[in-house]
Amino acid sequence: MLRFALTRIVMAIPTLLIVAVSVFVLIRLIPGDPASLMLGDLATPASIADLRARLGLDQSLFTQFGIWFGNLLKGDLGISINSQEPILPLILSRFWVSAQIVLVAVFFASLVAVPAGVIAAWRQDSILDLGLVGAATLLLSIPTFWLGLLLLLFFGLKLEWLPVVGYVSIGDDPWRGIIYLIMPILTLFLHEIGVILRMARASTLEVLRLDYITHARAKGLSEGAVLWRHAFKNAFGPTWTLIGLVLGNLLGGIAVVETVFTIPGLGRLLVDSIFARDYPVIQGCMLFVAFCYVLVNLVIDLCYPIFDPRVTAQ
Amino acid sequence: MNRLSAHLIGAAVAATLAGPALAQSLTVSVAADVRSINPGVNRDDNTDDFVLQMVEGLVGYDEGGTPGPLLSEKIDVSSDGKTYTFALRKGVKFHNGAPLTSADVVWSWNRYMDPKTDWRCLTEFDGRNGLKVEAVEAPDANTVTMKLNAPNALFLDALARTDCAMAGVIHKDSVKADGSFDKPIGTGPFKMGEWKRNEYFTMSAFEGYASPKTDGKIDGYLGSKRPLVKDVKFLIVRDPATVKAGLLSGAIDMGGILNSDVDELRKAANLTVQVGTNAVRHGLLIQTRDPLLKNVKLRQAIAAAIDYDELVSAASADLAKPNNSPLYPGSSYFGDVEKQGFKYDPAQAKKLLQESGYKGETITILANKRPTAVSFPQAVVAQSMLQAIGIKVEIEVLEWATQLDRYNKGNYQMQAFSFSSRFDPALGFEQFSGNKDKQPRKIWEEPQALALIDKAMVVADKAERQKLFDELHKRYIAEVPMIFTFNGVEPYAMSKRVKGFEAWQSKQRMWEVTLAN
User: Fold this and answer.
1) 3-class secondary-structure state, position B155
2) Which residues in chain A are closer than 8 Å to B199, comparing Cβ atoms?
3) How far does A28 lie from chain B, in Å, by closest CA?
4) Are B412 and B286 in contact (CB under 8 A)?
5) In A209-265, which residue ranges form alpha helices assigned H by DSSP?
6) Which of A14, A17, A310, B309 has its CA 20 to 30 A from that of A121?
7) Poorest-pLDDT segment among A40-44, B226-230, B348-352
8) Is B395 helix (H, G, I), strand (E, B) or coil?
9) Residue B321 near chain A (CB below 8 Å)
10) Whole-number Cα distances in Å, B394 to B195, B223, B381, B480
11) Which residues in A12-114 belong to E strands, given as ranges?
12) CB of A251 closer than 8 Å to CB of A296
């Protein structure tokens, strides 16, 4: 197990290197200059040149990359051009906000969607199956920004149960913090139910058609035992992988939900930085997101043997 | 869970959120966080707006955009136009209780002029752009003198500029022992509160504030500036739909809204809507060095093909009025000449098009789709009007940073663009005029026009300047280097409990604002 984990971590290094180089190059290929954006249409050539020099943007790309990469190896992601904040603490504080929403939403979505998907497969083509698949498709089809706004209008404006705007950190005030997170979590929860339920149903259907399930039934096992002891364990693998991918995606990309609910998360930071051409923050965020992606999938892979012992043997 | 218990939980949650009632606390939504709290350093309009409620300069703009005394009560100019003597207003105190003295002004100025401060406007006063403040002295505790390298009609205007943070005077305690900036300890009506990055920033009333006037009449950054609410929280809400929901729910007391939301929010029982105007100038830029558009007849045809009433109505959701002048209507120089804009005349446009020798070439208009910008709607309406007289037009939609890059490089045929506010007409003309070889972003480079602008920078006599601006306006209308269409509008929605707010130049001035309980 340890060797497997170490191998995967070592394999992640080239991935992160490729991400570092490609993000550095690609962001500079798109037109737009941070100094011009900061100074706007009132800028003079002298003031733009001054600011570019102060930001180190007047140096060659190779030199800029060398400085950035050298600092990166020392664990220093640099300083934000816009806010002048150190980037690593900035990313970590924003990541923590996004992670609370994503982890809770995906956890509860999995808790609901996986059993629902298994049941839908078990009762394939029944009204229950059609209802669950229909609901999943509907949830999947609604864009998160619209779903968020609907929840906001219903729970915030109509019922006046939940706050419409603002954010309170759980660290500052746990109870109020939770209240402010309910709607963003609910939005993601509903959306991800659709994604996970469909996968759980499809993989369970595949397993239910296999011979060993017929054999288990022929032995006279109850439907519950067949479904949960034999079918579920085998069917859960692909769903588990999907949950890993969903987590990896969401940890760096819930900018829309964060915008609607005024949540200061990582996705919003990344989008704002792209619009402002805040190169160091974009590079830091992308690298961090890639790292999270690799880490989450590593954890997912390490958990595989729990469901399928053959993975360890391989 | 039955319906009753659901309501009970909801009520409990709502009660928890309400917390203790804070009288006179105002919550205002803003679309972006401030960049810093260091005046004139790492700033944008939003940052200036916040900082200038806490710090004040020797001079500030009045409602019409003319600089007038703020921390000073009297300004004398020497006969050679090179020495300005500011007599400080008496009774002014900093937020830490210390009285304002001329030594504070000199210290503050020297700090701005130190390159280590990174003041945005250093180049405006160190001679690199012509104007140089050669000496700043404090002959006595209440007098400050500033000596210039040459007479300059725009010196006070430059001092009052909001993007320069008005060269706001701050106390020495604003800076830590190691020389780094701590927080603004100014003389403004509000004191710095709490800044939680990307969430909110707050300020509280400065009880020791000495308002320039106390008659309740707001006048730009001058006039009556009493802080009448206990504190103000600027909440960062980026999504306009969320702002709307916040206003309707009462979670937000006041905030800027989209033009398109004005009609809907005017119908809300708990809200009032106020539409202010500002000196932002929207328009269509023309690349006068483009092989096609260097033809003045073609540019004149374009100007005559646009129905300005129609275009402005569509682009501003019927909130703005056309203005083709580079001067904004609130300016004291905006007279009868400036009111004469381009004439919408399709027949004349077709005639001019024929005379220009246009052979059906395609013209591309660059635009962006930022929700608060009017770029795209302007481009769409202009496209249809130009096509109506036979000009082929395409629209290329770009992200804002890319469009700004193309503007700076002069790499376009036409653009639907907006220029930020410049109060003095000379600066307003200078903003888009100059030699393209030196600055590719400049649009109008006709030598005689540039000479008139240079002259307007030096001449101080108002009547003389008016003549210069009238002449410039006429030349601009004749040559059509670009087409200004209308000035910015800024709709705000606010709770009916909010009184005394007056929208002005995109600034959310919180002085003289009250909040009824």
Assistant:
1) helix
2) 166-167, 262, 264
3) 12
4) no
5) 211-218, 223-224, 232-251, 255-260
6) A310
7) A40-44
8) strand
9) no
10) 45, 48, 12, 20
11) none
12) yes
A94 close to A264: Cβ distance less than 8 angstroms: yes
Residue-by-residue DSSP string for A109-162: HHHHHHHHHHHHHHTTTSHHHHHHHHHHHHHHHS-HHHHHHHHIIIIIIIS--S
3-state secondary structure B160-202: HCHHHHHHCCCCHHHECCCCCECCCCCCCCEEEEEEECCCEEE
Report the share of chain A in percent with pLDDT over 90. Answer: 46
Positive or negative, the Cα torsion across B127, B130, B136, B142?
A: negative
Q: Name the residue of chain B whose CA is nearest to A48's CA.
A: B120
Structure tokens at B169: 């005077």
Query: Cβ distance A231 to A180 under 8 Å?
Result: no
Residue B249 touches partner A, C-beta closer than 8 Å: yes
- Compare all CA atoms of chain B with the CA of A180 and give the residue at the minimum distance: B17
CB nearest to B419's CB, from A41, A163, A269: A41
Cα separation, B417 vs B375, whole angstroms: 6
DSSP B53-94: TT---SEEE-TTS-EEESSEEEEEE-TTS-EEEEEEPTT-B-
Q: What are the tokens at A212?
A: 């060993």
Question: Could you report the per-residue pLDDT of B373-390, keeping only the tens digit for each?
Answer: 899 999 999 999 999 999
Chain B residues closer than 8 Å to A279 by CB: none
Handedness of CA A11, A16, A18, A19 (dihedral sign): positive
What phi and psi, each to the nearest 5 degrees, are found at residue B486?
Answer: -165, 170
Structure confidence by residue, pLDDT tens digits, A123-181: 999 999 999 999 999 999 999 999 999 999 999 989 999 999 889 999 889 999 999 99
Looking at residue A312, its pLDDT comes to 63
- A32 contacts B405? CB cut-off 8 A: yes
Report which DSSP code applies to A164: S
Q: With contact defined as beta carbons under 8 Å apart, do A81 and A279 qualify?
A: yes
- Percent helix, strand and coil across chain A, each to the nearest 5: 80, 0, 20
Residue B76's alpha-carbon distances to A108, A241, A262, B156, in angstroms, are: 72, 77, 50, 12
Tell me if chain A has a CB within 8 Å of the CB of B237: yes
Q: How far is CA B159 from the centre of its chain?
A: 15
Tokens of A199: 């996968």
Residue B8's pLDDT is: 46
Do the beta carbons of residue A188 and residue A144 sit within 8 Å? yes
Tokens of A13: 């290094």
Distance (Å, whole) CA B250 – CA B255: 11
Q: What would the two tokens of residue B310 be?
A: 């129609």
Helix (H) or strand (E) holding A55: helix A45-55
For residue B430, give every residue at least 6 positions away whose Cβ sits within 8 Å of its Cβ, in sequence order, or none: B422, B453, B457
pLDDT tens per residue, range B82-96: 999 999 999 999 999
Q: Which of B128, B163, B422 sits opposite A46 (nearest CB)?
A: B128
The residue type found at A268 is R
pLDDT one-digit tens code per residue, A12-50? 888 888 988 998 998 888 888 888 887 777 777 777 888
